[in-house]
Write a structure and sequence with these properties.
The chain is of the alpha/beta class. The protein is built from 30 helices and 33 strands. The strands form ten sheets. A six-stranded mixed beta sheet has the order 6-5-18-17-16-7, sandwiched between helices. A six-stranded mixed beta sheet has the order 29-31-30-33-25-32. A five-stranded parallel beta sheet has the order 12-9-8-14-15, sandwiched between helices. The chain starts with 17 loop residues before the first strand and ends with a strand. Bound molecules: ligand MGD (2 copies) and molybdenum atom (MO).
Length: 764
């Protein structure tokens, strides 16, 4: 018996780095080779081909890789996948199994010594498992007993608000809907989700300014745009299928501006994966203008651009701004435009790290275009002023009237494949009143009104012993969240930690007094219930709801579907519930009927979702209607540039993804597009900064973060000289999460500022 603390952070050991040239373009044959390699090694050739054939086809399953939409019409056989999508499905369809025998022969302590890569490669979990109090190994448990443990622990709490119900973004609409319904019938809104760490800043900014927390564009808009601005996003790695859309923009004469501290390979040049003839060539140039902005210099940059536009408008009145749109559709123009005078270019310019002529070029491009799309991801959201970043993007679009028309609008590119759908289904700690009323009417109960905890608040509550049970519907909480050691202590304080998972991950090893692992079916697997084979539904980044059905045999006969697991927990917990949980599981059409009855936009859900390609949800911003905002109009807003000040020897650190990981799932140890192979513990630095610090390539360093007098340390990283602005650095998460202070979050959205960590660097 052991109660030793398990390791919350990945090992500090280095793995044997190899540096290579940075490739000139993204995708192409190398990507296809890498994809097939991952698929066939993990799954075997037969299962592998079956997998790829069905990926993102209209009658196949939705790629769990990202939320980028599929073309509405043409879909090429074996083509609507990308290298990283293929890796994602290979990871799930692996032949490796984590069985009860595996757990009997590996203690939690021993497993926690492994790297995240090794933990993930152990394979798929095959049976429900229990870690008893004081025990060193997980043991097999029946589903029935697992559900009663959860029910008993939940019912023993002093208040429902002492339980946390986390969701990651792969959960289907059906499972998410049942989950939030169960949680609200239990009596709390403690429904934090991965969105809190992801696009929460986008949701906050867009709801306030445009009246909908989602993006406004469709895939077809990329065919019609004059200009696409890609800011704070690395699609070459994280949304490779987006490169095809950008390729279409270019083909139709549109331009692309990229704003990023790093010259990310995919954005510079790419080779169309769907056009084998082009694989032989050098690839297509994507970016017309690259602005290598300093980390968190975006508001300053956008303000300079808009000041330049304002100057031009003064010179040539009524030619630059879209006054018809501004007058008819917006609110707050006068005060916004006046506020621009509060900043001088001289004061803003150093924050951007750019030259004025470069920025003028961007302003000119913008001035000359009417149909502008702006795409963004974590480079904007995960900053203290993350909400400001996005509202400033909206200001720019509003000045040009570039929203609610073809070829123009907002495009927050989502991460997890159903993270947007989960929100639509009510996974939110701050539910809207009309949604709760609809639930109450349909299910005859009193829904709680008090707002629940978001991710950061949930961690703090567990740390303060205010929350005692943690349930995770997917995800990897310990490795995804900030301030690793603080969060680990928070989880260790719990009476019970439960994870509904496909694969083993570190969150199973950083546990409460007791812990449960509940293994579920993955997206690629057949889901058979008493009425027959089921499909689930998901919503992509552009608001299209469609089917997803797996074709592979489940990796173990013991697995339950996520909806069935929720129903099991609900029945074991709720004494008198008005929901026929078991019956709803027999046929998911019944769940969809309930969704239709309570959520807007799902009329004829079961019929419409059976049409190939699915259907679009209503989107007011897309329809040029901003009435849902507080003013009834699209709102200009006043935003502040970065307030980060660095001391002489300090740097700003962004924690980003390699080309070989999916969030906390580490597919491999390479970051091919940045020329780093077989090592994750690296820090990218500007060569001049290195000189100043007397650091050489491959020197070993420790990273120390500084926040309100507190210090946090991550040890043993290798210095890599890279094209990055001065005083800016980059490394990977989850290794660097230990440096992100729990209290360092974005205003309004409370998203951890994991792209804006202040660090110093010391030799190790
Ligand atoms: N293969 C793969 N695909 C994924 C994921 C994955 O891990 N692997 N994760 C999924 C998820 S959940 C998400 S949310 C998305 C994430 O997709 P991204 O947001 O593209 O992912 P990050 O690696 O966090 O990259 C952030 C980008 O923003 C830039 N950046 C950082 N700070 C700033 C800044 O201050 N200003 C500007 N202008 N740029 C900045 C970085 O240089 C980097 O290019 O991808 C999804 N898709
Ligand atoms: N420092 C730093 N931290 C970050 C970020 C960053 O950029 N920097 N990014 C943040 C972002 S954008 C996000 S979205 C979060 C991600 O946070 P999470 O969503 O919590 O993390 P993931 O790594 O995506 O979760 C992976 C786990 O999900 C489980 N899983 C996979 N598929 C399924 C399934 O179909 N069903 C179920 N039940 N489980 C499944 C597997 O067990 C796997 O180990 O991390 C955030 N953390
Ligand atoms: Mo995300």
């Amino acid at each position: 018996m052991s109660t030793k603390k398990t390791k919350a952070q990945p090992p500090e050991k280095l793995t044997g780095i190899k540096l290579t040239d940075i490739p000139e373009s993204a995708v192409g044959t190398k990507a296809i080779k890498s994809a097939l390699n991952h698929v066939f090694t993990e799954t075997g050739v037969g299962r592998g081909i079956g997998l790829l054939k069905n990926l993102n086809q209209k009658d196949g399953f939705d790629c769990p890789g990202c939320a980028w939409p599929d073309p509405d019409e043409k879909r090429a056989f074996l083509a609507e996948y990308c290298e990283n999508g293929a890796k994602a499905v290979a990871e799930e369809a692996t032949k490796n199994k984590v069985s009860p025998l595996f757990f009997a022969t590996h203690s939690v302590e021993e497993l926690s010594e492994l790297s995240d890569y090794e933990i993930g490669k152990s394979g798929r979990i095959t049976h429900p498992m229990l870690l008893k109090e004081g025990s060193s190994n997980y043991e097999e448990i029946s589903w029935k007993d697992a559900f009663s443990i959860i029910g008993d622990e939940l019912n023993a709490l002093n208040s429902p608000n002492e339980a946390i119900f986390y969701t990651s973004g792969r959960t289907s609409n059906e499972a998410a809907y049942l989950y939030q319904l169960f949680v609200r019938q239990f009596g709390t809104n403690n429904l934090p989700d991965c969105s809190n760490m992801c696009h929460e800043s986008s949701g906050s900014a867009l709801s306030e300014t445009l009246g909908i927390g989602k993006g406004s564009v469709t895939l077809d808009d990329f065919n019609h745009a004059d200009l696409v601005i890609v800011i704070g996003q690395n699609p070459g790695t994280n949304h490779p299928r987006m490169l095809s859309a950008l390729g279409e923009t270019k083909k139709n004469g549109g331009k692309i501006i990229t704003i990023n501290p790093l010259p990310e390979v995919g954005l510079m040049k790419y080779i169309d994966p769907q056009n084998p003839i082009k694989w032989l060539g050098k690839g297509q140039e994507l970016t017309d203008l690259f602005l290598q902005v300093k980390i968190n210099g975006d508001v300053a940059l956008l303000k300079i651009i808009m000041k330049k536009m304002k100057e031009k408008e003064k010179e040539q009145p009524n030619t630059i701004f879209n006054h018809d749109f501004i007058n008819e559709k917006t609110h707050g123009f006068e005060s916004f435009i006046a506020d621009l005078d509060n900043y001088s270019i001289e004061e803003l310019l150093p924050q951007t790290g750019l030259t004025l002529p470069e920025i003028k070029k961007a302003a000119e491009l913008i001035i000359n275009c009417d149909k502008i799309i702006t795409c963004w991801a974590m480079g904007l959201t995960q900053h203290k002023n993350g909400v400001d970043n996005i509202r400033e993007v909206v200001n720019l679009l509003l000045l040009k009237g570039s929203i609610g028309k073809k070829g123009a609008g907002t495009c927050p590119v989502r991460g997890h494949s159903n993270v947007q759908g989960d929100r639509t289904m009510g996974i939110w700690e701050k539910p809207k009143e009309n949604f709760l009323q609809a639930l109450e009417k349909e299910f005859q109960f009193n829904a709680p009104r008090k707002h629940g905890y978001d991710v950061v608040e949930a961690i703090e509550a567990m740390h303060n012993h205010k929350a005692k049970v943690f349930i995770g519907m997917g995800g990897n909480f310990i490795s995804a969240t900030p301030d690793t050691e603080f969060t680990a202590d928070a989880l260790r304080n719990c009476n019970l930690t439960v994870h509904v998972s496909t694969k083993l991950n570190r969150s199973h090893l950083i546990h409460g007094k007791r812990a449960l692992i509940l293994p579920c079916l993955g997206r690629s697997e057949k889901d058979i219930q008493s009425s027959g084979e089921q499909f689930v539904t998901v919503e992509n980044s552009m608001g299209v709801v469609h089917q997803s059905s797996g074709h592979l045999a489940p990796c173990s006969s013991e697995l339950l579907s996520e909806p069935a697991i929720v129903a099991g927990i609900a029945e074991a917990t709720l004494k008198d519930t008005t929901v026929p949980w078991s019956e709803l599981i027999t046929n998911y059409d019944l769940i969809r009927n309930k969704i239709e009855a309570t959520i807007n936009g799902f009329t004829d859900y079961n019929k419409r979702v059976r049409k190939k390609g699915g259907f679009y949800l209503p989107n007011n911003a897309r329809s040029n209607d901003f009435s849902p905002t507080k003013t009834g109009k699209a709102n200009f807003s006043i935003n502040v540039p970065s307030d980060i000040t660095l001391e002489e020897d300090q740097f700003i650190l962004m924690t980003i993804r390699t080309h070989d990981q999916y969030n906390t799932t580490i597919y491999g140890l390479h970051d091919r597009y940045r020329g780093v192979l077989n090592e994750r513990r690296v820090i990218f630095m500007n060569p001049e900064d290195m000189k100043k610090m007397k650091l050489s390539k491959m020197d070993h360093v420790n990273l120390i973060s500084h926040y309100e007098g507190e210090q946090r340390i991550a040890k043993n990283f290798l210095v890599i000289p890279y094209s990055i602005p001065k005083q800016c650095t980059a490394t990977y998460f989850p290794e660097a999460n230990v440096l992100v202070p729990i209290k360092s979050t974005a205003r309004i959205s409370n998203t951890p500022a994991s792209k804006g960590v202040i660090i110093s660097i010391e030799r190790s």
